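Hey L., structure's done. Input below.
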Amino acid sequence: MKKIVIILAFSLGFTSLHAQTENTSNDYNKWSIELAGGFNKPQRPMSDNYYTARVSPFTADLGVRYMMNNKFGLKADFGYNSFTDHGNSNTFDSKYYRVDLQGVANLGRIMNFETWTNTIGLLGHAGIGVAQLENDDLHVKDRMGNFIAGFTGQIRLSNRLALTGDVTTIVNAFQDNTFDGAGLTNSRGLSGLVFNGTVGVTVYLGKNTKHADWTVLSENVDLTAYDNKLAELEAQIKNIPSKQVIVEKPVTNTVVENKDVMKEMINDKYYSVYFDFNKSTPIENSTAAIDVVLTYLRKNPSASLDIIGYADQVGRSEYNEKLSNTRATNVKTIFEKAGIASSRLNVVAAGADTSIQKDSEEARRLARRVTFKVK
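Output:
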């Protein structure tokens, strides 16, 4: 019976460790629709005495994107540019239409933006397509191929909507006419160059809560140390003579060879409370660890408790110390509301946990915690 109780208690802490990681399954949305509009600047080729404004309206873009995972995807989009005269230019009015298939890289996830923001993202995109330049006044219809590449900044408004700002470069191949339609390029190579700048919105589709753009997948965690500890506890209990096991009625603690096993497990940090990045409210699944420690304090009214707060190493040390203090204080408040006297609870702000790797997202998740020391 003692063996079952101890293993069950250890398992609660083990479950708490797992609960603070991101889901590794594909339960995130992958489809989105992108709408944007803005300005353009055709650089070349232009005929003599023909030119547009430095920033020229109008540009429109409609895209449909599919993310294969949270880092890479594909996008099909349709674009429209209007090229018109400006200032002392000869009069002209040209239209440019294109359709492209592009690869997309979620640079925000690749570069771990989540370590400092949950609302700003960055996409890179590049691909190929076909285009047509039209000038009805000059009876021009020029078909060509194109190469396209750019960057899209994102600001997440909700799980369904994000604002975007995009800068894109388009290089045309086999462009026979100048953008004004009044001249010939005399080139079959990469003669055309256009810069586009747009702002727009992305609408995320699907039944799940988050889209791949904002989903962080957990890495595999090395749990060897926890497995070894569990095996050690099992071995200790299996080898204990019955006369060395003291059971009081009602049961308060399990004592092994005059050791308070539950106290040791709490002090060895097997019960910890975890937090999301830059947050001071415990994640939902951390309540199991709080319940275990709370039960111990109730059954041991003479015991006092250090509540030790930590932050990860992202950010300034002064801020991390303040955040670790707030996390520990909030956990103390939970104990106080549960009836534990404030005099038995001591808050310790440990600041950033430098014992855990800074460059690993999974390690940083483990660093954002509150641990306990029973005295």
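Confidence is low (pLDDT under 50) at residues 1-24, 219-223, 240-252. The domain at 2-21+235-374 is CATH 3.30.1330.60 (60s Ribosomal Protein L30; Chain: A;).

-- N.
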